[in-house]
Amino acid sequence: MPVRIEMAASIESVEELPGSVANVFSQPNILVNMHGKRIMNESYMQNSTYLSNVAAHQKSKVCFSIVDNSIVKYYVRHGVDNVSLVRTDPDVSDFYEGIQLAQENGNTDIYTADTTLALAEKMGVNVENLVETIEDYNDYCDSTDEEFFKEKRYLRPLIKAPYYAAKVRPGGYGTVGGIRINENCEVCDDAFEPIIGLYAAGADSCSIYDDSYMFLLPGNSMGYAVNTGRIAGMSAVEFIDN
C-alpha cells in the first residue's frame, strides 16, 4: 500500500519575504488560471486542501491570486479578512516592503503592473480573457457573483493601480499511510489478511485521507492516532492473553 502525500497549496517563492505577502495573496480575492478565467469560489481559498485540489487540475498546475492597491490599502488599515491557524496575524502593514524586496531579488512568481492588460502579459496568461474576467468580476462586486456565488463581504473590485498577482501551486503538506490495517489495527498483507501479532496505529496507518488533508475538522489526526493506538493496544493485549 503506497504512502499518500497530502496536498496543501501555497503561494510561490515567498519564503524570504515578510509573511504579509503570502497573507494578502491568500485572502479570498479573485483567483484565475492560465486561461485568465476564474476557477473557484474564492471564499474557500483559506482551506489549502480545497485550493490545492483546484490548482492541481489547472494547466501547468498553477493559478494566480490577484489584488489591487485599493484592496491592499484596506488590509493595511483594517487587517485582512481572514486569519488562520497558519497565518494568525491580521497585520499586513509591511506588504509594500515585501513587494519591493521581491522585485529587488528578481522574484519571477510575483507580478506588479499599472494595468490589468500589462499584468496579464507579465503573468503569461490569456490577456483578453483576464481583462474580461476582471471586468465581469468588478460588475459582480456591485451586485451578485453570478459565476461562483461568493459571499458579498469578500467581493472587492480591482479598480486601482498598481495591480499585484502571485502564483499559487499545489504542494506536499505531509505523508500518511503506507501500512494497511483492519478494524483491529492488525497490519494486513497484500491479500488483506492480518499478520498475526503485528499492529500499527497513527499516521503510519492512516487511511482516512487519500490525497488531501482535511482542515475542517480540528483534531481529526490526533483523534485517529489516539483511538487507533487504543484499539491496537487492546488487540495486542487480547492476542497475548490468548
Keywords:
242 residues, Flavocytochrome C3, Chain A, domain 1, 5-stranded antiparallel beta sheet, elongated, alpha+beta, 7 helices
Short recap of the structure:
This protein has 242 residues and is α+β, with helices and mostly antiparallel strands. The chain has two domains: 8-169, Flavocytochrome C3, Chain A, domain 1 (Alpha-Beta Complex); 178-241, no CATH class.
Characterize the structure shown.
With 242 residues, this protein is an alpha+beta fold. The chain folds into 2 domains: 8-169, Flavocytochrome C3, Chain A, domain 1, CATH 3.90.700.10; 178-241, no CATH class. The chain contains 7 helices and 9 strands, in the order ββαβαβααβααββββα. A hairpin with a 5-residue loop joins strand 8 and strand 9 (194-199).
CATH architecture of the largest domain: Alpha-Beta Complex
- CATH superfamily (homologous) name of the largest domain: Succinate dehydrogenase/fumarate reductase flavoprotein, catalytic domain
- What is the residue-mean pLDDT, rounded to a whole number? 90
Provide the CATH top-level class of the largest domain.
Alpha Beta
The count of strands amounts to 9
Strand fraction: 15-25%
Overall geometry: elongated
Number of domains: 2
